[in-house]
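#random but structural
TW: two for the price of one
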Amino acid sequence: MVAQVAPSLAQQRSKSTATRKAPARKSTTKSKAQLERERLANLRRIREASRILSQTQKQKEASLGQLNALKEKLDVQKGVIRNISSELKYIESDVRQTETQVQQTQQSLEQLKSEYARLIYASSKTANSYNRLMFLFAAESFNQLMLRMRYVRQYSEVRKTQAAQITSVQQRLNRQLTGLTEKKQEKSSLLTTQLAENRNLSTLKVQQDQVVTKLSRQEENLRQELANRQEAVRKLDNLIAQRVREEIARAARVAAAKAAAKAAAERAAAGSSSPGSTARTSPAAEAAATRVDRITLTPEIASISSSFAENRGRMLWPVARGFISQHFGRHAHPVLKNVIVENRGVDIQTSAGEAVRAVSAGKVLTVTSIAGMNNIVMVQHGEYFTVYAKLRSVTVSEGDQVQAKQSIGTVYTNSEGTSELQFQVWRNSSNLNPESWLGQK
């Protein structure tokens, strides 16, 4: 009888062990770590937008700056809710998997207990010393005696092993049940947070609608403000175009002069002068002199341009804090109906007195001022240019060499309490979208 029970237990134990293997976790779109990073980034953006909004709300009248700050908070709030929804899906998946593991562990535990009960029943027949001795001495040969002694020892070892396994599985089950309870509590807490964030979203929407309503009553003022802005933008565009043309022409003259000097030196070295020969400008010099659409790429300019271009998509922001309040290109006016506005760069709304910094190393090409744009700084980076407008103060001069992150001034705050920087990126005479260049803050 012993010989039949022991192998059976070994086989069943191997089956129960296989049953306890947990299924592999399915891959999720975002990991918990990514969701946590997003959550922290959203909290930082909300703090920034709240700080900026509080400055615009100090004025009694509603303003576009106030509307922009509310819109930023609204957008971030939606991101917070999306983040919570993703976390909930992650936890729900975790709960389902843990419930499956608990069920499998419970089944494994029941199977082990059943096996142990059968083992105890079988061993009870030889439990006392007299029965055990009778079982051993009833052997018909010495070999059978040794075999029966081995079976008795095996039974004792199997009982100990089964008892240890039951204890281990019970402990694992307890841990899984504790983890399941914690996950369900986390889910409940997140659901409560989600409800609160949805209420915050509704409140922000009401505030936004109220500001839009107030601004709609100021249509005449808004149209005048828009006209003034368009005039300031036109003057800024003309200034940029003029300075770029001047720099292209200057670079062309320098390149042509260098090419001509090089050609003259080569002719002199070759002794090519002969009676009747006339000085002639080299083809390279002629090409450099006539090229007026882009800056001539000398090795130095090419190197600077390459360094600037390598930062595309990860470029430093011109301010440490803030958000894009008006995007690049053509888009509808936030209040005025059927009005399209065009932005050559991006407007970045920030805090009062915020330092404005160079996004890359370069040379200060222009420092000037225009009504409606206040102080303006234009920095050259080889064949690229960056423009910083709406500055209250400037700390650099034309011709200065600046480094990335170096302060070039502070942002201007208007009468409505809005602190906003106009930032542009150009390549020769081509206007580029700054948003494709700026990296994550």
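TW: number two ↓
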Amino acid sequence: MPKNWGSVARRGAHLVRSESPKAKNPAPVPSAPQEPQDEWIRVDGQDKSSPEADAPKRHRAAADVPGDVAAAIRRSASDATSYRRERLVEQMGKAAEAYTRHRYEEAARSAGRLAGEVPDVPEVRELAGLAAYRSGRWRPGATHLEAYRTMKGDGQYIPIEMDCQRGIGRVRSVSTLFELLRQESPSPDVLAEGRLVLAGSLADRGKLGEAIELLESNGASKPRRNPGERHLRQWYVLGDLYDRSGDVPRARILFSMVAESDPNAYDVTSRLKDIGPTRKPRQRKKSGGKRTA
């Protein structure tokens, strides 16, 4: 499964679950880039002489699944009939297509059922976990992604696992997973996402100061000449935290940094309108008359 699946899911992370009227709902995704340029379902590189190429036409969706994944599904379901094995591969193809078309609940149901029959195929658990996460199904999302990580030794989805645990309310699990993430030496993008989720968990418990310090101490508010999506997300989340803590001037600065880079990112334009423009200091009126001795 390509890494861009993870980036799509992380961009959908519910990083701001504030109870304040200003941020009741998760912030929308930045205007660009929203989705990866390529889809997971593909047929390139398939060996035409392989058994997969000879699958009946009524199971053409199976050909859209990468050969190694299809083979793994068939091996896992070795006790099933040949017909059933092909149907399982076809089910994987349909679940993946539903995911790429943003039909996450459909993908979660289909991939979840498939994971019940072939639980030892990591790509199935990966898809089931990401689809469950995008559907707001925190428990199955956490379960499937943990299984994927255990089987593959791949920590790229730890921030998503953290957010699932956050949704369930398992505070300690969020912190434990973040420490695990740090030990993995992940990419800057993945580590930043982990910090954002941890900051959100702290904010959920009213620890706004700690959440702000976590991000500030790691340079999250630093201006960038050519900011990437990671920087926009950090600025926005920090702006939200400052706004909720009562530091409106600081929140305005950070929201403005986001808006200058991408006016359509999240709901930053409306947030700036809500907090209002910078207030100019009042000037004292000069007395028109002269003082008398």
